[in-house]
């Protein structure tokens, strides 16, 4: 009686290990790409620009045979980044106390500048009022 041949089992396990290694490499590269895309916007801060960037990235990431979504997604990402640069950020709850302190300091310094630069000395002794 002959022992069963296990060459095909060994070959299959080697191929499985190679495909597992390739899959792990692809997942690692995808993780790097997601981290890079993650740095394009701040977490926890809403806004139309961040939504546009997220939508554009989704269009670029998912494959399509005609590559139209890649071009459109790239344009939407660029528009979202431009929007974030042009539109001033709103007042967030995270930095509201810092912003209030800065505004109070600005008001005090503006008030001091106004009193120092625009106070005109008026001499009321030369004015005569007749009733």
- Largest beta-sheet characterization: none
Poorly predicted ranges: none
Q: Give me the strand/helix succession.
A: HHHH
Could you tell me the strand content as a percent range? under 5%
Radius of gyration in whole Å, from Cα? 33 Å
- Quaternary state, please? single chain
Distinctive features:
131 residues, mainly alpha
Notes on the protein architecture:
With 131 residues, the protein is mostly helical. The protein has a domain at 17-91. The protein is 67% helix and 0% strand. It contains 4 helices and no strands. It has helices at residues 7-38, 48-61, 68-86, 96-118. Helix 2 (48-61) runs antiparallel to helix 3. The longest helix is centred in the N-terminal third of the chain and has 32 residues, at 7-38. The termini are far apart.
SSE topology sketch:
Elements: H1 7-38, H2 48-61, H3 68-86, H4 96-118
Helix pairs in contact: 2-3
Briefly, what is this?
This protein is an all-alpha fold. 67% of the residues lie in helices and 0% in strands. The chain is built from four helices and no strands.
